[in-house]
Structure formats: structure tokens, C-alpha cells
Amino acid sequence: MPLINKESVKKRMGTRLAANGFAKFLFILATCFSLLVLGVLIYRILSEGLPYLSLDFITNFASRMPERAGIWAALLGTIWVMAVTAPVSFILGVGTAIYLEEYAKKNAFTKFVQINISNLAGVPSIVFGLLGLTIFVRLLGLGSSVLAGGLTMSLLILPVIVVASQEAIRTVPREIREASFGMGATKWQTIRRIVFPAALPGILTGTILALSRAVGETAPLLVLGALAYVAFVPENIFSQFTVLPIQLYNWTSRPQEDFHMLAASGIIILLIILLIMNSIAVLIRNKFHKRF
Amino acid sequence: MDITINKQIVPKNEKEQDFTPVFKINNLNLWYGQDHALKDIKFDIPEKQVTAIIGPSGCGKSTFIKTLNRMVEMVPIVRMSGEIVYRDKNIFNAKYGVEELRTQVGMVFQKPNPFPKSIYENVAYGPRIHGIKNKKVLDEVVEKSLRGAAIWDEVKDRLNENAYGLSGGQQQRLCIARCLAIEPDVILMDEPTSALDPISTLKVEELVQELKKDYSIVIVTHNMQQAARISDRTAFFLNGEVVEYTDTSTLFSNPSDKRTEDYITGRFG
Amino acid sequence: MSRDKTNQKSIRSMIQENKSSRSQSAVMEKVVPKIFLICAIISIFTTIGIVFTLLTETFTFFNRISIVEFFTNTRWFPFTSDENADFGIIALIMGTLTVTAIAMVVAIPIGLAAAIYLSEYASAKTRKIIKPILEVLAGIPTIVYGFFALTFVTPLLDKIIPGGISIFNALSPGIVVGIMIIPMIASLSEDAMNAVPNSMREGALALGATRFEVAMKVVLPAALSGVIASFVLGISRAIGETMIVTIAGGSRPTADINVTESIQTMTAYIVQVSQGDTGYGTTIYYSIYAVGMTLFVFTLIMNLLAQFISRKFREEY
């Protein structure tokens, strides 16, 4: 007598195939759900936001009257904060990455720094706000200024830039470092002239993506005490400020429907900015993809 | 068994010392962790000749050539004893900077490893890191080095293109040109043709013949025919030891050690 | 191959001449690593700074409100005269956990299903289209999701649910936080499943197993540690999420959860206080640090747990 009953195997085959088909349908459905949500979200924002979108909306200050309100102060505030965040986070992030990849010995300290950075990336952004509030706003007496906001944001995105830069540096093949050392180049010469330029596209991609995250962040700057209603443009890094997401939060939390439509218009601008930043990052990534 | 007798009559490494050595290696030992990779290496490398290092894989020939410019120290667990004297200076002497040594002793690697820069910048890299900034001088050095590496005619119209666009054989000759640009005294070549097709290999071999007029060359190769074709002297490495070191024709036609004979006749390795 | 001997001498000698400037570069070789070390130390100081600020201010808070009351009182009612104020974080924790639970109910099945589809069923071409879209979803700022929750999901739920729903409630932000986390779970789980070698799949397929059986009985068990780690990271993300719950969740802390009613999460409370005119040095001011500390500990535990799971149970293929 055969151990396997061919008949029952055949009989069960139908059910099994049906289960496979049904499961596949469910999996596709789940995947499409995300796409559907994205579609609805974009449709809603465009349909609500487009009517208020105009050049005036961009160049006007915030106002209590929806038809005169604009995002000028918030837009410039965002640019000011990023002008602080970008160089600070780039220098600290790339410096840390170079240290960890090129100079650090494999010891407890290095391991500690590495674990530290990966855990820092998981800290909620609002906790960085509390850090900024205590250290920059109060302890260093910077107040709720562009500088305090920019530094807080730098610390927030620092782990992302460090990890991206480390990965970029690691893709530089050992062979070309050896070639450089073989010509009598010192370690720093090799890093500066060979490793860093070769890793730069990867580093830039990571940095731009991290900055685009900072552009969309609201919570830490709210905690810092960035103003929600601002009718002036920052004059220097010690000025008070607002940023785009905070302005959007302000409009969203008002009960009047008109302000919600303003918020939608502002969201369009914010998403366009993010889209541009992400496109640049993707362009750099694709242009220099797989050179080694 | 007459080979053993032969060995007693003519002790190896002692009959000829009729050249000026660039490297004198004395009792060199090297360990990777617990692994004793080079054992009591002792021989001299002549000036303006081609010295080939042959032996089966894992015999220490690559490790050996990398000790000559101290590239081997990039492996963290390496330990060494003994001395290597380059032009009357012990290269392990603390006062002798490793950068200075590598400026004199250039290296061409197993796999072509141009920098992700233009052809011009690849060749100009060496002079630049050693502080030569004058554009006219650089132009001259680049042309001369590319000519020296017999690749000038192929790349002269596209000096500003990325070196990664070149074929493997061209890349390797570019790497040789890059090495020539700082005008080293010695050129170390670590299996420079192992990643190349036969035609590119031939070109590199011809180049080596030309270069020995001006440079002392040490070449590691797993290809015995290559060693026979291009080298003046050959060292046969086995299990981290030098079994035999003599002029190439003698080694291949009349080896004094049984193990050498086994290897060159293809009985192992 | 005629070599100009005089010129050759000059290059070599030029390099020799430049040796003098090498002492200067030797200084660089010593200084540069120190500079980079300082960069690395600053990134450590960030963590130390976070822990230090949270600890000191929390300590001040516990001098005024007992730690026992903080963790046992179920009422959070700080905006009143001092003697009547209640600081029982359980109310805020319940709010946070409710939103997190709803989010995971949405994100885990959908995220995992999408991951299985992408890794086991989808063609390379489909994957190439869907993955960037998921990346776009992951890159949308939380303020935008908050707006979406308040102005679209809440009114929609109000129509669907019999008896309606409050403008501020736990359900809507919970669902939207879930939607926000889907891409994260999908992509991390897919990475884990992609790491399962194809030979394992082929082995099962060659026995006549269906794709579904391969996914559930071969790939998923093999990738389980990575998949679960992605869930844990998702939970951590949901706990720390701020803007969606602030905008759509309301500000009524309660331990008595009704998902159609307003709640308040830990994060939303911190925003509420920093938006108000609370003076420096008041009990309320210090309370945001105590809440922040609790939040930090919660997410830290989750992150460490995720790392532990993916490291401890890593499959060796």
C-alpha cells in the first residue's frame, strides 16, 4: 500500500490553489490600500488647497483674515532654520562618520558611540525639543531663536546623516585606498582626496533626505517655543521665527473651514519643497549609482 | 637523487653576488596572529633588474612583496621581526617614515585600481600629494608617465574622462603610469596581469621589459611562464620560506632543489 | 621611450624639496583625527544631554509631586489651582497606548501583507513602482497626516460609525498613525524576507508547495526575527508620534478609554503645555520633563528590544 494517497493529494490541490489565489488577492489589496490612501490624501489636499494658492499666498504674512493670509514669514523661517541646520549637521555628521570609519579603533568607546547613534535615531523628535528647550533656549540663553531651532534640528537629524555617511564611506573600495597609500599618501591625504570625494554623492543624498525630514518636523520647534503667529521675517539668527509646519499646525487647529483650506494650500507648498529636495537626492543617487 | 648531491656541491644563494642590491632582506619573519606566514627570509634584490617571486597560492609571496613597502601593516594583526634594508636604511626604523618609503617604492596591484577621477587626475595624484602644484610641470609629468606606461596614444584625446571608462588592461597600464609619475626607485608588482586578458598581459609584460632600464622591479606572479619570460632573477616561495633564489634561467633549467623542480614541472601548486 | 634624464631628476628632487613642508602635514595628521573625534563626542553629548536634562528637571518635578502618585493616580488634571491638580500619568499612558494599539491593528496586517506581496509575489517591475510610492508615504510630514486625520478621516468615521464620533477622538489619529507606519513595517519586513536565501524557497516550490505555503511556512518563519523587530520599531514610532495625535486626538486625558471620545497622549500634553503661557519654574513646566522622561524610557525600551530581537534571533543561512 502506498504511503501517500495520490487521490487525496489531488483532491486537496484545489483547495490549496484556491487558498493561494485568495491570499495573493488579499496581499495585493493590502498593498493597494497604501496607494489608495496616498491618492486620497493628495486629492483632498489639492481640492482644498488649490483655490487659495496664489502668489499673494506665498508673499503675504499671516493674518486673522483668511483671504489675506500667507506663508511668507513661515517660508523664510524654514529657510533660516535650515541655513543653520544644514552646515552644522553636515559637519558634525560627516566628521563623526569619518572618525568612526577611518580613525576609530575597534574598542569599547567606538562601540558605545555606534550604539549611541543608532539609539539616538529612535528617540521621538519631541524629546529633542525638550533637549533644545533646556540647553539652547534656557542654559545658553539663546531664547526661542533661529539659532536655537537650527541647532536642535541639527541634533535631531545628526544620527541619520552619520549612518548615511558611514554607509557611503564603506562603499569606497579598499583597493583604491591602498593605491593611495601605496603612492606615499598620508591617511588624511587619502581621506581628503580619495575617500571623501568618492563617498560624497552618498553623503549628499543622505544629508538632503535628512534635511527634508527636518523641513517637515513640527514638534521639536513647538516645544522650543517657536511662535505660531509671526508677522515678520527673521533678520538674523537671533530673531524669533516660525516655520512652515508650525504655521500649518496653527491653521489646522482653528475651527473655521477657511483656515483649513489655507492649511491645505500651505501643505501643497510644503510638499512641493519636499518633492524638490527628494528629487535632487534621487538624482544624485542615480547619477553616481554603482561606480565601483 | 642526484639533485640532492647537486645541492651539496653548489649551495644555493651563494655563488653569485655580482649586483648592486636595492633591498637586503635579513631574517624576515612575519605572523598573522598565530599564523607564521614568512619564515627567515634572507636574500637581496638587485637594482635595475626584474626579480620574480613565484610559488603556489598561500606561500606568502604576496605578503612578502607587501612588506617591501610596508603595505602589509594595514592588516591590524600583523607582527614582524628581522630587517629589510633599502638603500642602506632599515625600513622598519621608526625614523624612516612609511610615506617616504612608499614614495621611493611604488606599487602596482593585483586588480587595476584607478581612482574614480579623470585619467589626468589619476596620474597627477602622486605629484600633487607630494606638493607639486605647478600646472605646467604636472602636464609634463602626466604625458611622460602615460608615455612611459605605453598608454599615451590611447588616452591622449580623453585625458579628462573618468578612468573607469577604460578597459581592464588600459586601467592597469594607467595604474603603472600613476606609479611612474612620482618617479620611484623600485616598482613592486603584485600579480599585475592576473585580472587581464592575454593581449593586455602581453602589453604589460613588454612594458616591464622597458621599465627595467630605469627602475628596479619586483614582480609576484602565479604564472611560471611569465616569470621565465620577463624576469632576470627568480625566487621560489613555499610555505613562507624561500626554497630557491637564483637567476631565472638557472632556476628553470637546472633547479637545485627537488621541491623547485616539482613545482616548475607542474607536479604540485 | 626616450626619457629626459634631467627632467626626471627634477621631479624626484622636487618631491624631495617638498619634504620640508611635510612636517606641516605631519601636524595635520595629528590634529585632524582629534577634530573628528570631537565631532563624535558631540553626538554622544546629545544623548548625555537628553538624559541629563530629562533627569534633572524630572527630579525637580518629583520633589513636588510624589513619584508614587505620578505612577498610580489615574487622573491627569494639571491646569487648576495647585492643591486640586492631579498628575497621574496613567491617564496619558492610556491615551498613548490606545492610539498605539489602534495604529498597530492597522499597520501590522497591512504592512506585513504588503511586504509578503512585494517579496514573494510581485515582479521586479511592480516592485520598482510600488517601493518608491511607499517611500513617498514614509516621507510625508506628520503635520500633513494630522491634517488628513482631522479633516478627512474623522468626518468619514463620523458618517460610518452609528451614533457618530467626537471631533477629537482616539480612533482617527490611531488609524492615521497606523497608515503612517505601514511603509516602515512593509520595508523592514521585506528586507528581512529578502534576506532569506532563494534556495530555501526553491526547495519548497520543487516539492509542489504553492507560493502562499512557501511564504507562510518557509519565508515568514525564517524571517520572523526581522519581521517582529519591525513591529516593535513601529510601536516605538507610534508611541513617539506627536502631531497627528495633537491635532486629531484632542486634549482630554483619561484612563477611561472610549475610542470615539477625546483622549490625550504623552506627546500631545507636552505640545499643549509648550503652546500655553505656562511660566518657567511652575509644576506644570517641570511636568513636561517627567512626561518626556516616561516617553523616552518607553521608546528606548522598544528600540533596545527591537535590536535585541534582530540580533539574538538572527537566522544564519
TrEMBL record, chain A:
It is found in: Cell membrane. It comes from the Bacteria. Gene3D superfamilies: MetI-like. It is a multi-pass membrane protein. Residues 75-280 form the ABC transmembrane type-1 domain. The chain crosses the membrane at residues 21-46, 71-100, 120-140, 146-164, 194-215, 259-284. Its main location: membrane. It holds the Pfam family BPD_transp_1. CDD domains: TM_PBP2. This is Phosphate transport system permease protein PstA.
TrEMBL record, chain B:
InterPro entries: AAA+_ATPase (IPR003593), ABC_transporter-like_ATP-bd (IPR003439), ABC_transporter-like_CS (IPR017871), P-loop_NTPase (IPR027417), PstB-like (IPR005670). Residues 23-264 form the ABC transporter domain. It comes from the Bacteria. Keywords: ATP-binding, Nucleotide-binding, Transport. Gene3D superfamilies: P-loop containing nucleotide triphosphate hydrolases (3.40.50.300). Coiled coil: none annotated. GO terms for molecular function: ATP binding. This is Phosphate ABC transporter ATP-binding protein. It comes from Fictibacillus norfolkensis.
